[in-house]
TrEMBL record:
It comes from the Bacteria. It holds the Pfam family DUF742. This is DUF742 domain-containing protein. PANTHER family: DUF742 DOMAIN-CONTAINING PROTEIN. It comes from Streptomyces daliensis. InterPro entries: DUF742.
Amino acid sequence: TVLSGSAGTLPGGLRPEERRLLELLLPGALSLAETAAHLRLPVSVVRVLAADLVDAGHLQARAPIPDAELPERQILEKVLDGLRTLKSS
């Protein structure tokens, strides 16, 4: 599961753990396991906190993108090479 903050500012009335979780996720997204590691909390605890924040509309959760739907590495390398060529021109 990938978690991301859904608001630009922190809402009031949060418990300290919820605040830490949202502060971590507001600038971007992390997997549930990465979030737990950053917060130094068990994954099961972060799962419960995240579920509460999703229900309150403060957090978004989605399934990770399957490898089959990700762009191929060769295509990304060609795009990067093209950008480097443009930069050096």
